[in-house]
From TrEMBL:
It comes from Endobacterium cereale. GO terms for biological process: nucleoside metabolic process; transmembrane transport. GO terms for molecular function: catalytic activity. It comes from the Bacteria. It holds the Pfam family NUP. Signal peptide: none annotated. This is Purine nucleoside permease. InterPro entries: Nucleoside_phosphorylase_sf, Pur_nuclsid_perm.
Length: 316
């Protein structure tokens, strides 16, 4: 019997975790995407991937890849190499929640990455072993080809154009929590932003490491550090080795600040008392899909234009 033709993937949406079921309970990163695109889709098992892949008849596919660089990238590679799929012309939306520095963003913001930077590839030492106040990081030679990725500016521009007017959800608890921070960006209403997404398996936290993340971004010539997350640079590396990076988007929603407010220590912020968390998680995971879906839908709707590559934005 002849084998079935592989699924021609137009857009692949990769999230990192789901809290419970794919639908009908508290939503994590995958649920809103699942309910929009795959509620009636069959699960496709992929050896080596954390979770099954779902695909609809329009060629929109997605999966939960796992948290952290190794976990997520091993799933991504297994899916990319599986003969059940044809990724030769696919676009990618790498989607999840994240943290943001209060000087540049706020809770329930949604951000498109302009650059992906790996936080971990370099040399570090204890602050007391270096010059007082100086950075405690230097890059290591040999990692130049995969410590950062400049995402396709035309594709990012399309994403911003298509999502900039989306009405973002917010919550009363998030509004109250923002006021703990003196920064204008932290106190602002949520919006769609762009900037560098910093990928680190270490859940780095506090003003000192936030400053270090910005130092690394500028050291590498990237845009301002805006998002801290744990997967995107590793996923981009796996995709790049098969298909390049021209069709990759990284989309993150901020559910926490990367440091405490001036009246709490970093440890207090990481281990808050009951009722002292930021709030806004449910609104943020909803916002991510609200912001990302117009891009997915445009690619599918105008596939004849997008199939061969990212069109000039004048094509709008």
């Amino acid at each position: 019997m002849a084998s079935a033709e592989p699924v021609k993937v137009k857009v692949f949406i990769g999230t990192m975790f789901e809290i419970g079921q794919n639908t009908g309970d508290r939503a994590g990163e995958y649920q809103h995407w699942y309910e929009k695109y795959w509620k009636d889709a069959k699960s496709i098992e992929v050896p080596g991937a954390l979770k099954p892949v779902h695909c609809n008849q329009d060629g929109v596919c997605g999966s939960v890849l796992g948290m952290g660089k190794v976990n997520s990238s091993s799933s991504m590679q297994a899916i990319l190499l599986n003969p059940q799929f044809d990724f030769s012309q696919a676009y990618y939306v790498l989607s999840g929640v994240a943290g943001t520095p209060p000087s540049r963003g706020t809770i329930t913001d949604v951000s498109w990455a302009t650059w992906l930077v790996d936080y971990d590839l370099g040399h570090r030492w204890a602050p007391e072993e270096g010059e007082p106040g100086a950075p405690v990081f230097i890059p290591r030679k040999g990692y130049e080809a995969y410590r950062l990725f400049h995402l396709n500016p035309t594709l990012v521009g399309w994403a911003v154009d298509l999502s900039k007017d989306v009405a973002l959800q917010d919550s009363d608890s998030a509004r109250v929590y923002r006021m703990r921070y003196p920064d204008a960006a932290a106190q602002a209403a949520p919006s769609v932003k762009t900037g560098t997404h910093m990928t680190g398996d270490t859940f780095f936290h506090g003003p000192g490491l936030s400053k270090e993340a910005q130092h690394i971004a500028k050291l590498y010539g990237a845009d301002d550090y805006l998002i801290t997350e744990m997967e995107a640079a590793a996923l981009a590396l796996v995709i790049n080795r098969q298909h390049g990076t021209d069709r990759i988007l990284s989309l993150r929603g901020a559910v926490n600040f990367d440091q405490g407010n001036p009246n709490e220590t970093t440890q207090q912020h990481l281990d808050p008392a009951p009722g002292q968390t930021a709030g806004g998680f449910a609104e943020t995971v909803s916002n991510i899909t609200l912001v990302g879906a117009p891009v997915v839908d445009r690619i599918v709707k105008d596939w004849s234009v997008w199939q061969a590559g990212v069109p000039d934005r004048k094509a709008r």
